[in-house]
C-alpha cells in the first residue's frame, strides 16, 4: 500500500496494523479474522470519523491481507499451489 497523502487514513492504517500484530491475528482462522475485523473496523470508524466508506473498505482489505498467513518458503510451497498446502 502506497503513501496516500491522507494523514488520517495513514494513521488509521497504522493503527489497524498495530492492532493486528498486538492481538496476534496473523494466521488466525479466516472466520475469526473476519469477526475480529468487524469489531475493529467499527472501533476505527469511531476513532477516525473523517474516513469515508471507500477508505474504510480499503482499510479492511489491507487488514485482511496483512492478517493472512504468510506463504511458507521451500518444499515446493508457493502462491501458485497455495490450495494444496494451506489447508493441510
Layout: helices, strands, pairs:
Blueprint: H1 7-22, H2 30-47, H3 53-67, H4 82-86
Helix pairs in contact: 1-2, 1-3, 2-3
Describe the structure.
The protein has 88 residues and is mainly alpha-helical. The chain has a domain of 54 residues. The protein contains 4 helices and no strands.
Question: Short description, anyone?
Answer:
This protein has about 90 residues and is an all-alpha fold.
- Based on secondary structure, the structural category is mainly alpha
* Helix-strand sequence: HHHH
Largest sheet: none
Shape: elongated
Low-confidence stretches: none
Mean pLDDT: 86
Number-wise, the strands total 0
Q: Can you give the helix content as a percent range? A: 55-70%
The end-to-end distance, rounded to whole angstroms, is 30 Å
Cα gyration radius (Å) = 15 Å
Number of distinct helices: 4
Strand content: under 5%
Amino acid at each position: 500500500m502506497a503513501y496516500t497523502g491522507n494523514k488520517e487514513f495513514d494513521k488509521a492504517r497504522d493503527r489497524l496494523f498495530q492492532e493486528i500484530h498486538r492481538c496476534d491475528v496473523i494466521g488466525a482462522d479466516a472466520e475469526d479474522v473476519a469477526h475480529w475485523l468487524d469489531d475493529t473496523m467499527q472501533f476505527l470508524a469511531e476513532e477516525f470519523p473523517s474516513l469515508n466508506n471507500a477508505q474504510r473498505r480499503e482499510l479492511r482489505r489491507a487488514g485482511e491481507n496483512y492478517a493472512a498467513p504468510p506463504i511458507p518458503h521451500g518444499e515446493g510451497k508457493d502462491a501458485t499451489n497455495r490450495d494444496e498446502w494451506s489447508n493441510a
